């Protein structure tokens, strides 16, 4: 049996029906009805009353008649049907709407569990970033490999700023043009997904103003989110180090990314071990 392609309108209709039918009127504070119910759960009239919409609107939604409910209506229905966070996300995705909270500002501190994870990943260099490349947490090995982030002002703990403007790391990458291009393509995708992020917009203006290469690549409008790859670095003490990187996005913290570096060859493994020992 093959899985059918999702018909978002029909799936939203079916999902709302099942959520309505599972609710007991007592759970939502509705008065008990004197006559017996012929259907399980809430009636459409009751959902309409709880959500502040018309009964006809609920009927058309549950019949999959081509409606695209607004954010406000989806929020009202989610409350009326007592949807949990995952169910709420599901109906917003089916309706192709951005959820309230999707436009919140970027994380400015790593989730505690991710900060512990980064520490536990030692001796592999690891760090936590947000969507605009701000460095939120790191382990000692990552600081040894790149730079002591703790010595930088918080506003400069940004991996793209370091690549473009930090005096030590500006020429750190052997294939700097590729690294910058990939970073620009990621930032353009993040810029479109987070149009409300004034801090990201300011970073892009700063980079474009002070780095000709960034400005040229930004104008090319490449878009790509790269989750893995390889970087070759010239470390001032350990020499050339090649690492494979992996970017993981936690389900519970979608604005945060765990970046893990692994040595790409034996020589790099030895170099990282020397840095770690030091």
From TrEMBL:
InterPro entries, sorted: Cro/C1-type_HTH, Lambda_DNA-bd_dom_sf, MLTR_LBD
PROSITE patterns in UniProt: HTH_CROC1 (PS50943)
All residue ranges annotated as the HTH cro/C1-type domain in the record: 41-88
SMART domains, per database record: HTH_XRE (SM00530)
Gene3D superfamilies from the UniProt entry: 3.30.450.180, lambda repressor-like DNA-binding domains (1.10.260.40)
Name of the protein in its database record: Helix-turn-helix transcriptional regulator
Annotated organism of origin: Streptomyces tauricus
Lineage of source species: Bacteria, Bacillati, Actinomycetota, Actinomycetes, Kitasatosporales
């Amino acid at each position: 049996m093959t899985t059918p392609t999702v018909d978002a309108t029909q799936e939203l209709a079916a999902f709302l029906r099942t959520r309505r039918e599972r609710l007991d009127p007592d759970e939502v504070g509705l008065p008990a009805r004197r006559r017996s119910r012929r259907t399980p759960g809430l009636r459409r009239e009751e959902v309409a009353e709880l959500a502040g919409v018309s009964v006809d609107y609920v009927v058309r939604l549950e019949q999959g008649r081509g409606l695209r409910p607004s954010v406000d209506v989806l929020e009202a229905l989610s409350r009326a049907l007592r949807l949990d966070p995952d169910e709420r996300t599901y109906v917003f995705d089916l309706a192709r709407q951005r959820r309230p909270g999707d436009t919140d500002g970027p994380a400015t501190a790593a989730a505690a569990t991710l900060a512990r994870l980064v520490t536990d990943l030692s001796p592999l260099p690891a760090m936590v970033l947000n969507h605009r490349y701000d460095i939120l947490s790191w382990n000692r090995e990552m600081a040894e490999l790149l730079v002591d982030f703790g010595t930088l002002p918080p506003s400069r703990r940004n991996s793209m700023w370091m690549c473009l403007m930090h005096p030590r790391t500006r020429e750190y990458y052997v294939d700097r043009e590729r690294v910058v291009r990939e970073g620009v393509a990621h930032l353009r995708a993040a810029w479109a997904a987070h149009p409300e992020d004034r801090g990201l917009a300011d970073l892009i203006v700063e980079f474009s103003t002070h780095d000709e290469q960034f400005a040229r690549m930004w104008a090319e409008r490449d878009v790509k989110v790269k989750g893995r790859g390889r970087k070759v670095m010239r470390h001032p003490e350990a020499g050339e180090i090649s690492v494979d990187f992996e970017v993981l996005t936690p389900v519970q913290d979608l604005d945060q990314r765990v970046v893990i570096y692994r040595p790409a060859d034996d020589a790099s493994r030895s170099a990282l071990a020397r840095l770690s020992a030091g």
